[in-house]
Known about the structure:
Elements lengths: L4 E6 L2 H9 L8 E4 L8 E4 L1 H4 L9 H7 L4 E3 L3 H15 L6 E5 L2 E5 L10 H16 L3 E6 L2 H10 L5 E3 L5 H6 L11 H8 L6 H4 L4 H8 L1 H9 L16 E12 L2 H22 L4 E11 L4 E7 L5 H14 L2 H6 L1 E11 L3 H7 L1
Helix pairs in contact: 4-5, 10-11, 12-13
Thymidine-5'-triphosphate binds next to strand 1, helix 1 and strand 3.
Amino acid sequence: MSRKIIHCDCDxxxxxxxxxxxxxxxxxxxxxxxxxxxxxxIATCNYPARKFGVxxxxxxxxxxxxxxxxxxxxxxxxxxxxxxxxxxxxFKRYSTTIEPxxxxxxxxxVTDSPLFGGSATLIAQDIRSTVEAxxxxxxxxxxxxxxxxxxxASDWLKPNGLFVVKPSELDEFSxxxxxxxxxxxxxxxxxxxxxxxxxxxxxxxxxxxxxLEQKFGRMGQALATRRYGEDxxxxxxxxVRKSVSVENTYTQDLANIQACSDxxxxxxxxxxxxxxxxxxxxxxxxxxxxxxxxxxxQLTREQASVEINLxxxxxxxxxxxHSGLPQQQRQGVRLLGMGLKLKAPDSQQQLRLx
Length: 354
Ligand code: TTP
Ligand code: MG
């Protein structure tokens, strides 16, 4: 059975909200992020700023070098959350099967919708114009028979675009897709694939499923399905969290392992607060630490665990710190993160309890 999925993603979301509040910002490069002098990072920027090469996750100092007239605003999370809720409530007028992915992004399943004669394209167009009229920001949408291609499609004509991939176009459209469009294929995996002469989904099709699995392990399975533009995952109304984490970028690098270890304690308090909000619905499956060094290289280490304890994190941090390159250690640590891997409670066990 073919589904009708719409993926909606707001254009430069935080920046769009700021431009709505102050219309003159539309005509100049703006970004939301931490200040350059306190080693902040860009969360997002408007499209005029993108012309200069400014982008999410770039150091603010580097962004200012690329675009000296860039105005960096500190960001107003409470406002962005309120706008997000307003947008999600508009989505709910069109379907009850909605899966929010972040504040500015959601999948909407309209397979059984009677609206607009059942045309997902017309529904998507109506969602876009309603959000623009009622909220004052633009969104891009992708329409496709599944989540994978709908998400690729929403990005296709960004900003303020609508792109539709019909079931009959799925095969041809996906053949041209670069492998990096497949979720989970980052630069490292892409390089590995390129070494086998694989750039796009059409290239992947000349291998058998078995060959893909032999060559690329678990990633091979995903490649085998996605290369034909297929994705059988349903739109999931209730978001299942896989992890919860907190992190901090320090104004001055943490010089040694002792400084890092001391810095874990306040992070741990914050993590526990977040965990307590989730603990009714989840169990702990593991602990994770993340380190970003002064040269921006980063590493994460995780360990299976059903308990949470600050000492677990300290031990794991020791291992992570000492597995960093000696040169990175000398340069110090600019960011520390800690998190928990989560799993849904074991339903069998719950049954046994009752
Ligand atoms: P995105 O949808 O990835 O980006 P965007 O909406 O700003 O721009 P685009 O038009 O390309 O969709 O993320 C949504 C918001 O999440 C973004 O406005 C700010 C925040 N964000 C961060 O804080 N850090 C990040 O690294 C990214 C990618 C996003
Ligand atoms: Mg967006």
